[in-house]
Write a structure and sequence with these properties.
- It is a single chain.
- With about 375 residues, the protein is of the alpha/beta class.
- The protein has one domain: SGNH hydrolase (Rossmann fold), CATH 3.40.50.1110.
- The protein contains 11 helices and 10 strands.
- Helix 5 packs across helix 8 and helix 6 packs parallel to helix 8.
- It starts with a helix and ends with a helix.
- The relative contact order is 0.14.
- Bound molecules: 2-acetamido-2-deoxy-beta-D-glucopyranose (5 copies).
- One 2-acetamido-2-deoxy-beta-D-glucopyranose binds next to loops.
């Protein structure tokens, strides 16, 4: 009897020692829009926000179009690389019941092109139609379970499924509070608001976005998330798709003002959340400052074209999406924009390096490298 208890006790001790010294694999979960999508929308047959056809992916291994809105990798991939992975974890929608059991399971990417903080953002194809030719003409208009995008609310529900399954498989040990949550969202909400000529005042609209952001973050916190790497909205008024609405070819200042205000509001929100919930850690990348800095002074970064898209057609190569018949530039590393909305692989890499190692002018209160270690 005494012997038996000893055996049990040492087993318990062993388990305790193993857990304590287990570095607790740091899983990566990515949520957001097309800036972080690595192929989610390929699984939505009626979605028009797709990039799973050439010339997308031309600089990806084997020139494969993966669904990334890029000539190669995107920022989610480069951030994952800096954390020692090959690239972003795969789309959640590509996982099966076996994926989570694999030893090399490293996280999931829920990001879906076209989505926003508001559930209605991206639900209709209206926004896409307004800014260019639809990428794919769906046979049936998206409705009900025929999705155009996976909203952030649904992305968080998908994470809840992953967490539940992982807890069942690994006894909870692998879904620790060490996991990193990268979130890049907000551009589509701002674009939708700006172009709808809404009568809602700007301040009121931004408040509604922040309330939505707060609720999303609280849902993630309730599910055990503690470390957030958040990317605010870039100066979207300078996207080729927006410049073509300005007769001078300059940026749409109204949109840029919205993006700037979005960052300030997000900064205040995170300060408030972290005072209410002391154990959360976060880093906010100021995508506005990072990008405007490059647009105003491109040469040190090897960019010679920061206005036109590399892949597209018409004015600034921004009157069409990057479809197989589009015009393609050859010096892609010298372009800031891949298509009418999205950065090139070179620009995404620069963004990720800045997020990972940047100083307080670009990422606060700590950078993503410090966040990973925190
Ligand atoms: C999660 O578990 C459910 C029920 O066992 C299963 O049907 C589903 O495929 C699992 N999902 C993932 C991503 O593992
Ligand atoms: C918004 O206003 C602009 C300029 O007045 C106009 O060209 C555009 O069609 C309007 N958009 C909507 C959605 O009403
Ligand atoms: C268009 O660009 C110019 C700079 O070239 C800028 O001064 C102006 O405010 C822009 N117009 C709009 C509507 O944003
Ligand atoms: C995670 O949990 C451990 C143990 O409960 C705690 O010591 C640590 O500070 C937590 N980390 C974060 C980022 O909250
Ligand atoms: C700069 O651009 C040139 C193409 O013009 C490319 O060959 C080179 O690799 C780029 N340099 C860096 C550091 O990215």
């Amino acid at each position: 009897m005494a012997n038996k208890s000893w055996v049990v006790l040492s087993l318990v001790l062993c388990v305790a020692v193993v857990s304590a010294s287990d570095p607790g694999l740091q899983l990566i979960f990515v949520l957001g829009d097309s800036t972080a999508d690595v192929g989610t929308n390929n699984f939505l047959p009626t979605s028009m926000a797709r990039a799973d056809f050439p010339h997308n992916g031309i600089d990806f291994p084997c020139s494969k179009p993966t669904g990334r809105f890029s000539n190669g990798l995107n920022s989610a991939d480069f951030l994952a690389q800096m954390l020692g992975r090959e690239r972003s974890p795969p789309p959640f929608l590509s996982l099966n019941a076996m994926s989570l059991r694999k030893k090399r399971f490293s996280g999931a990417n829920f990001a879906s092109g076209g989505s926003g903080l508001l559930d209605k953002t991206g639900k209709t194809s209206l926004t896409l139609m307004k800014f260019g030719t639809p990428v794919k003409t769906p046979v049936v208009a998206p409705s009900g379970n025929q999705k155009n995008v996976v909203s952030l609310t649904e992305q968080i529900q998908q994470f809840a499924t992953v967490k539940k399954n992982l807890t069942a498989i690994k006894g909870g040990r692998r879904v620790t509070n060490k996991s990193l949550f990268f979130i890049s969202i907000g551009s589509n909400d701002l674009l939708g608001y700006y172009h709808s000529n809404s009568s809602i005042p700007k301040e009121e609209f931004l408040s509604s976005l922040m309330l939505a952001y707060e609720n999303h973050l609280k849902s993630l916190i309730d599910l055990g998330a503690r470390k957030f790497g958040i990317i605010s909205v870039a100066p979207i008024g300078c996207c080729p798709s927006q410049r073509i609405h300005n007769t001078t070819g300059g940026c749409l200042e109204g949109l840029n003002e919205l993006a700037k205000a979005f960052h300030a509001r997000l900064d205040a929100l995170m300060l408030k959340l972290s005072s209410e919930c002391k154990d959360i850690k976060y880093a906010i990348g100021n995508a506005f400052e990072m990008t405007i800095n490059v647009i105003q002074n491109p040469l040190p970064f090897n960019f010679t074209q920061v206005e036109a898209a590399c892949c597209g057609a018409g004015k600034l190569n921004a009157q069409s999406f990057c479809i197989p018949s589009a015009k393609l530039c050859s010096n892609r590393d010298n372009y800031l924009f891949w298509d009418l909305f999205h950065p090139t692989q070179a620009a995404s890499k620069l963004a990720a390096v800045t997020l990972y190692t940047g100083g307080a002018e670009f990422v606060t209160p700590i950078n993503f490298a410090q966040l990973a270690k925190a």
